[in-house]
């Protein structure tokens, strides 16, 4: 099945309804606001109908996937260069910087500042110069004209709610993917019931029982998404999460878990919590996953939860570059990092990668920001067919 066929199948299952947007340009005085798939402005728009419904398409100069320091810095520079820029950020609270309690080595920043505070300031600054910020999960990209069928907007970014068409694409999703030894059965049933992306695969489990393992913010948000489709979401967590949420533990120290979202998830009628329970094995047969084997920490016996889907998220994330959505569209090194040149461009013209997704040894905020700056200047040169880098832009 081709990427386009997979995409429209996803649309059919998710019954997405959207509008075609020709372009947008935010006022330079726009104030920052985290939006959950809502428009920042009221752009000029025209409407077209597709056979599967209506699909919203945003046309921009630069699409940036990831809202960490690399992505925000890149957006700041491209927006200052009067390039229509959008950031697509899966979760502003779960990146490496966001879960850092204090920043002591970023130049000019008070050492008591938290990672979240610094990231918020970076994001606000980019938005003030015209960047549009959207909270959305990307599940697929197309990066060449022969894939998109468009000679101008040669890059396409697909989310469950809309498609972004861009002239240049920047990958800035970081490196907090799952690493380490997989659970028994995890690799065997990957793609046959085991998934790491509820937004991508959730609609396939309508009226079915699924299990979500992990207590990170990512796991919570993915489980919440699954409640729209699954008859029962079995939330399996290895910690005493109820005690944490009731204030028995210092929740502020656990930056990887969002307290309010966890409470909201637990209040859903089709969620069953398995607290202090570890995942032992994913089991199944020729048809795919049939259950997960778990063990409560107070018991020597194991129990099988009958499910058709197992969504596994590492507790606290990891350090693997997040490139699943790329689907081999760009070259990776042997450790999973995106390969770039000195201008942060990948092997695909007009596609750049910045920050920890490159999997360098120098995983520092200042390095990620530097990557974003370099990529932005390279993008401006690329889109305007310049021979030389334009170091700065006069911006009033």
Write the layout of secondary structure elements.
Elements (H helix, E strand, L loop, with lengths): L2 H12 L5 E2 L34 E10 L3 H12 L4 E5 L25 H14 L3 E4 L4 E3 L2 H4 L6 E4 L3 E10 L22 E2 L2 H4 L7 E5 L3 H10 L5 E5 L4 H5 L13 H8 L4 E4 L2 E9 L2 E9 L6 E4 L2 E4 L38 E3 L11 H19 L13
Parallel strand pairs: 1-2, 2-3, 2-7, 3-4, 7-16, 8-15, 9-10, 9-15, 10-11
Antiparallel strand pairs: 5-6, 6-7, 12-13, 13-14
What is the N-to-C order of secondary-structure elements (H for helix, E for strand)?
Answer: HEEHEHEEHEEEHEHEHHEEEEEEH
The residue fraction in helices comes out at 10-25%
Question: What does the average pLDDT come to?
Answer: 81
Distance between the termini: 49 Å
Biggest sheet descriptor: 8 strands, mixed
Radius of gyration: 21 Å
How many helices? The count is: 9
Low-confidence stretches: 1-9, 11-53, 248-255
Which percent range describes the beta-strand content? 15-25%
The number of strands is: 16
> What is the molecular shape?
globular
Alpha-beta content class:
alpha/beta
């Amino acid at each position: 099945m081709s990427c386009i066929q997979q995409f429209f199948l996803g649309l059919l299952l998710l019954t997405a309804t959207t509008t075609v947007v020709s372009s947008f340009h935010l006022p330079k005085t726009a104030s920052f606001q985290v939006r959950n798939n809502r428009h920042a402005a009221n752009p000029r728009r025209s409407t077209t109908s597709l056979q599967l419904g209506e699909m919203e398409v945003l046309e921009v100069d630069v699409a940036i996937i990831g809202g960490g320091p690399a992505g925000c810095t890149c957006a700041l520079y491209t927006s200052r260069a009067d390039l229509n820029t959008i950031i697509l950020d899966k979760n502003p609270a779960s990146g490496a910087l966001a879960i850092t309690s204090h920043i002591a080595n970023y130049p000019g920043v008070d050492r008591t500042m938290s990672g979240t505070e610094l990231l918020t300031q970076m994001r606000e600054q980019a938005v003030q110069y015209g960047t549009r910020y959207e909270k959305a999960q990307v599940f697929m990209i197309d990066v060449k004209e022969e894939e998109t069928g468009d000679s101008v907007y040669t890059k396409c970014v697909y989310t469950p709610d809309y498609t972004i068409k861009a002239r240049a694409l920047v990958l800035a999703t970081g490196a907090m993917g799952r690493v380490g030894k997989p659970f028994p059965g995890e690799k065997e049933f990957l793609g046959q019931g085991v998934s790491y992306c509820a937004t991508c695969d959730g609609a396939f489990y309508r009226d079915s029982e699924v299990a979500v393992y992990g207590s990170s913010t990512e796991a919570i948000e993915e489980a919440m998404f699954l409640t729209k489709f699954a008859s029962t979401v079995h939330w399996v967590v290895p910690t005493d999460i109820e005690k944490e949420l009731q204030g028995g533990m210092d929740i502020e120290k656990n930056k990887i878990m969002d307290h309010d979202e966890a409470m909201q998830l637990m209040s859903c009628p089709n969620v069953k919590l398995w607290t202090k329970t570890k995942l032992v094995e994913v089991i199944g047969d020729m048809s795919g996953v049939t259950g997960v084997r778990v063990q409560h920490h107070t018991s020597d016996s194991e129990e099988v939860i009958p499910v058709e889907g197992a969504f596994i998220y590492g507790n606290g994330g990891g350090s693997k570059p997040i490139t699943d959505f790329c689907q081999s569209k760009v070259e990776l090194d042997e450790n999973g990092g995106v390969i770039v040149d000195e201008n942060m461009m990948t092997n695909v013209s007009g596609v750049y990668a910045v920050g920890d997704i490159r999997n360098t040894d120098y995983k520092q905020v200042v390095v990620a920001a530097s990557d974003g700056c370099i990529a932005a200047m390279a993008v401006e040169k690329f889109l305007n067919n310049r021979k030389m880098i334009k170091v700065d832009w006069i911006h009033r």
